[in-house]
Every structure is written in C-alpha cells, then in structure tokens.
Amino acid sequence: MPHIRADRDVCIGAGQCVLTAPDLFDSDDEGLVTLLDAHPDPSRLGDLREAVELCPSGALRLAEADEHDEHDEDDES
Fold first, then answer.
1. How far apart are CA 4 and CA 60, in angstroms?
2. Would you call 66 exposed, middle or buried from its count of C-beta atoms within 10 A (0-12, 13-18, 19+)?
3. Which of 17, 23, 33, 38 could tie 74 with a disulfide, CB 3.0–4.6 Å?
4. For residue 62, which phi and psi values (nearest 5 degrees)?
5. DSSP characters for 21-71?
6. C-alpha neighbours within 13 Å on the C-beta side of residue 68
7. Furthest CA-CA distance within the chain
8. What percent of the chain has pLDDT over 90?
9. Could you tell me if 4 and 60 are in contact, meaning their C-beta atoms sit under 8 angstroms apart?
10. What's the pLDDT tens digit per position in 61-75?
11. CA-closest candidate to residue 43, choices 23, 19, 15, 59
C-alpha cells in the first residue's frame, strides 16, 4: 500500500490537503503541512490521491513503502 509523503521545503501552505482530509493532514504555526497519519487505512487511498492532485506546490506524493526521501516530514520524528 502506498503511503503519503510531504516535502515541507516545497509546501506553500495553501491548506488544500487539510480541507481534503483534516484527519490525515494539519498545518503547523507557519502554515506548512504536517502529517497526522503517513500510513492511513487503505480505504483512504482516494482521499490521499485527491490531496496529492489538489496540492498546488506538489509537496505531497504517494510513495511505496520502500521509498525514502530525506525531506519527508514523516521521517523527521
């Protein structure tokens, strides 16, 4: 199952992800995306795809479980 990746260096704080799936995304004090659940239930794949498509900066992407990106928000914890 793909999971969501967020590149906070690319995020412009438009908030489309939060509007699309507020239980999966939030924004921090600077307005940048934070992931509430990088590995949500497979039933949420439609919401994840919609959030990726609506992100105006391209900060979100679906990734396979074995992919790694040094800028991913979910890898900072």
1. 7
2. exposed
3. 38
4. -90, 135
5. -TTTEEE-TTS-EEES-SS--GGGHHHHHHHHHH-TT--EEEE-TT---TT
6. 4
7. 31
8. 73
9. yes
10. 998 766 554 444 444
11. 23
Count of CB atoms situated within 10 Å of the CB of 65:
9
Q: What is the mean pLDDT of residues 48-77?
A: 75
User: Contact 3/65 with Cβ under 8 angstroms?
Assistant: yes
Asked if 73 and 34 count as a contact pair (C-beta separation under 8 A), the reply is: yes
What residue type is 65 in one-letter code?
A
CB 48 within 8 A of CB 21: yes
